[in-house]
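Re: that chain you flagged

S.,

Sorry for the slow reply, it's been a week of failed gels. I finally had a moment to sit down with the sequence you sent. For the record, here it is as I used it:
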Amino acid sequence: MALQKPFHIVLVEPEIPPNTGNIARLCGATGTILHLVGKLGFSTDDRYLKRAGLDYWSEVDIRYWDNLEALTASFPEGRFVYTSKKADKSYVEFSFLPGDFIVFGKETKGLPEELIAANPDTAVRIPIIGKVRSLNLSTSAGIVLYEALRQTGALQGA
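Prediction finished late last night. Pasting the structure tokens below so you have them in one place:
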């Protein structure tokens, strides 16, 4: 599946290698660009990745950034969609556009509350019905990305 204007998944300081590996696979399977921002909680050297079974890593368009500010400054026309359980709007109520940057925070803390508060129009959450506090990062990325792909017609004929 080749998208005319691919989506972007942004992981800010991911901490758990299997989550990032699953998201990398998701990105590779959907033609989505993966941005890794800030200090990673693991190594991305070839030996480590191969040992973890991430042999498809080379098939993913992965870009590294020192911080979120550097990424946003490099894409001034980009629309950044921030995910947080503290956002008011559900991801299914949001209208995604091709090329959106879907931003996820680190597993233990999420994105900073002030970032969500400063961007209420582009902050989304995944509703949780039960007593569980949160979903796994890679599960969340898959849910939101596939909704964005569905809304923009990218899954038609795939």
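What I noticed first: Residues 23 and 128 are 21 Å apart (CA to CA).

Talk soon,
D.
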